[in-house]
Specification:
Blueprint (H helix, E strand, L loop, with lengths): L2 H43 L3 H14 L4 H7 L1
Helix pairs in contact: 1-2, 2-3
């Protein structure tokens, strides 16, 4: 493999790593948002409406287009 081919392969691998890390970060963020939504539900069940509002607001802030979160917020 010559230097030019090695550089291309190296750049390609760097790009793949960047794409994968972005995807993993998004998955973690989505899960954290879902966890906030589930915490809000638990807070409502226990009667802690102020705590529920904190968690559902965080979920809506992270995913403002999510109709499930918006409907739960009311």
């Amino acid at each position: 493999m010559n230097n030019k081919t090695g550089a291309i392969v190296s750049n390609f691998l760097i790009i793949i790593c960047i794409i994968l890390s972005g995807s993993i970060t998004k998955d973690v963020s989505t899960q954290a948002t879902r966890d906030n939504y589930l915490r809000a539900i638990e807070k409502v069940k226990s009667g802690n409406f102020e705590g529920a509002l904190t968690f559902i607001n965080q979920a809506v802030e992270n995913e403002p287009e999510n109709h499930e979160y918006l409907a739960y917020k009311g």
